Amino acid sequence: MSWTIPPLNPLRAFEAAGRLGSFTRAANELNVSHSAISRHVRGLEARLNTRLFRARSTGVELTETGRAYFDKISPAFEAISLATEALTVPPSGVVTLTTENTVAQSWLIPRLASLKAQHPEIDLRLSISTDVMDIEAHEFDLGLRYLRHDPKQDYARLFPCLVCAFAAPGSVQMSGAKVDLDALARSALVQEATFQVWDEWFERSGLTPPPKLDLPHPLNARLAIQSAVAGLGTVLMDKHLCEPEMQSGVLMRLNAVEIPFGGYYVAINKQASRRKAVRAVYNWLLEQDAE
Predict the structure, then answer these.
(1) Which residues, listed in sequence order, are joined to residue 190 by a DSSP beta bridge?
(2) Cβ density class 13-22: b for 16+ within 10 Å, e for less
(3) Residue 88: exposed, middle, or buried by beta-carbon count in 10 A (0-12, 13-18, 19+)?
(4) Tell me: domain 93-156+263-290, CATH 3.40.640.10, correct?
(5) In terms of CATH architecture, what is 8-87?
(6) Is the pLDDT reported for residue 133 higher than 70?
(7) Under DSSP, is residue 235 helix (H, G, I), strand (E, B) or coil?
(8) Which residues, other chains included, contact 220 with Cβ-Cβ below 8 Å and sequence gap of 6+?
(9) How far apart are CA 71 and CA 197, in angstroms?
(10) Residues in contact with 206: Cβ distance below 8 Å, sequence separation at least 6, in sequence order
(11) Which of the four pLDDT bands, split at 50, 70 and 90, describes residue 129?
């Protein structure tokens, strides 16, 4: 049987414009002129004898007929792209990831040698920000964030946040093999801005009723960790963010109490997810969670 298929270039122009909602962005992606996209789309509309797009102030949008056609065409292009990638070179190119400073320093950067070993052709570029942002609007490929509650957006949770108490070795009074909780409650405590749960930690540790604490002004996570390392007090901190200090021995964990307090999530830009390198970094992040 013969296939009823329009020429490939008009189909590519239609698919890109429908996905991006703009003839200009489609032209940039396909490395052709705006007029070439417009010409291909007009030719396809004439061939199909129907309107596929309508103009908007911010670009174009699919008509009802155009949307139905796009929903059938786009997965076919994606399948062709994935099949072709599987037979070609390893993932390569620039991937942009936005995350917070402490997450980058304490969790991500110590693991990047593993990513480089698996995918030496990928150039991962970090953007440090404390804002929870729309990665698609800001044109980042990936976003890695701490979130207190499960997000409504399509984020995948990497690992839970588990808040524990840490102090420099020798800076905490002990009662036998255990921390002297009464003495600790009277000692210097570091207050981190997010994990303000000292009362709950003392109660879970067995000191009831929880004591009245004289807590200092809250610090950001990096400064709170550094304060504990310097022996300025005991800090409540997510255990994942204290991994480097625990491994080097400059901080010790006081007991087994862990307070669940949100988690760390990764989001992928839907447009960027078409690129093999972006999917490779996304999958690598999920593998770190499994480890």
Answers:
(1) 235
(2) bbbbbbbbeb
(3) exposed
(4) no
(5) Orthogonal Bundle (1.10)
(6) no
(7) strand
(8) 102, 192, 193
(9) 49
(10) 181
(11) confident
> Cα(62)–Cα(19) distance, rounded to whole angstroms?
9
Model confidence, pTM: 0.72
Residue 1 clears pLDDT 60, i.e. is over it = no
CA atoms of 232 and 240, how far apart (whole Å): 21
Chain-wide mean pLDDT for the chain?
A: 90
User: How many residues does this entry show for the chain?
Assistant: 291
Q: Which two tokens stand for residue 48?
A: 């199909």
Q: How far apart are CA 131 and CA 107, in angstroms?
A: 18
* Fold match flag (8-87 vs 93-156+263-290): no
Cα–Cα dist 52/64, whole Å: 8
Which sequence spans correspond to the domains of the chain? 8-87, 93-156+263-290, 161-260
Task: Convert the pLDDT of each residue in 181-238 to its tens digit.
Answer: 999 999 999 999 999 999 999 999 999 887 889 899 999 999 999 999 999 999 999 9
A 10 A CB-CB count for 182 gives 13
> Does residue 136 register a pLDDT over 80?
no
Tell me the C-alpha distance between 211 and 224, whole Å: 22
- Dig out the tokens for 187 from the structure: 């000692």
Alpha-carbon span 251 to 258, nearest angstrom? 16
Q: Which of 215, 211, 191, 193 is nearest to 203 (CA)?
A: 211
List the CATH code of the domain at 161-260.
3.40.190.10
- Which tokens in the block code for residue 191? 């207050």
Q: Are 185 and 176 in contact (CB under 8 A)?
A: no
In 3D space, the residue among 251, 259, 262 whose CA is nearest the CA of residue 201 turns out to be: 259
* Paired strand residues for 15: none
Q: Which residues contact 198 (CB under 8 A, 6 or more apart)?
A: 189, 191, 210, 213, 215, 236
CA 122 from chain center: how many Å? 17
- Amino acid identity, position 143: G
